[in-house]
């Protein structure tokens, strides 16, 4: 009879304790979050406010039994499900792909144009265009030639035509 009344008292106590959407108490939720943060079940037990198992003879923390208690919490299916949900959310937040970056830049562009912020709208569009390869940086290569006779200009022009360059004369030499 005493055991059943204790079970009833425990049930009443648990019914009063707030539960989250996963059916976890606040301490269980804290334990799950601390475990994801540290990946250490025993540390998560302490961080979430659970008391460690203490040896009655010495008053010291029994590391072995405290570790077993932490593992028992980890074996709770509701806690495991919540831990997996948190991990998936963390992975989603840190996993950036080119598609996600482009989408964020496009969202920035839309918000900027809605707010008449054309500087940031243009920056977003430039970044998207660069990613798509729409802008090509042009480079000018200058080469000075020395000891070139007047007759070799024609040879240089022919060579430039073959490789697709334009020859322009300058005061210091020929620029390609």
Keywords:
about 180 residues, mainly alpha, 3 domains, two-stranded antiparallel ribbon, 2 strands, about 60% helix, disordered N terminus
Describe this entry's structure for a reader.
- The structure is a single chain.
- The chain folds into three domains: 2-94, no CATH class; 98-131, no CATH class; 139-176, no CATH class.
- Strands 1-2 form a two-stranded antiparallel sheet.
- It contains eight helices and two strands.
- Helix 3 (41-47) crosses helix 4 (63-74) and helix 6 packs antiparallel against helix 7.
- It is mostly helical and 176 residues long.
- The N and C termini lie far apart (101 Å).
- The chain is elongated.
- Helix content is 61%, strand content 2%.
Total of helices: 8
Helices and strands: which structural class? mainly alpha
Query: What is the total number of structural domains?
Result: 3
Spans of at least 5 consecutive residues with low confidence: 1-15
Please provide the ordered H/E string of secondary-structure elements.
HHHHHHHHEE
| Biggest sheet statistics | 2 strands, antiparallel
Distance between the termini: 101 Å
**Strand count:** 2
Helix content: 55-70%
Tell me the radius of gyration.
Answer: 35 Å
Proportion of β residues? under 5%
Oligomer, anyone? single chain
Mean pLDDT: 79
Shape: elongated
Reading side by side through the largest sheet, how are the strands ordered?
Answer: 1-2
């Amino acid at each position: 009879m005493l055991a059943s009344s204790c079970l009833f008292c425990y049930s009443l106590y648990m019914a009063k304790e707030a539960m989250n959407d996963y059916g976890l108490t606040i301490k269980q939720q804290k334990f799950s979050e601390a475990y994801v943060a540290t990946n250490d079940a025993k540390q998560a037990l302490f961080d979430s406010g659970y008391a460690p198992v203490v040896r009655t003879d010495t008053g010291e923390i029994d590391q072995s039994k405290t570790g077993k208690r932490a593992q028992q919490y980890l074996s709770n299916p509701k806690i495991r499900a919540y831990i997996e949900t948190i991990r998936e959310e963390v992975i989603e937040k840190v996993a950036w792909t080119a598609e996600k970056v482009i989408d964020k830049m496009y969202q920035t562009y839309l918000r900027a144009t809605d707010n008449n912020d054309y500087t940031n709208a243009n920056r977003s569009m430039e970044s998207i265009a660069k990613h798509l390869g729409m802008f090509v940086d042009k480079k000018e290569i200058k080469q000075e030639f020395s000891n070139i006779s007047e007759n070799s200009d024609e040879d240089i022009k022919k060579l430039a035509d073959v490789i697709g360059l334009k020859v322009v004369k300058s005061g210091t030499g020929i620029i390609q």
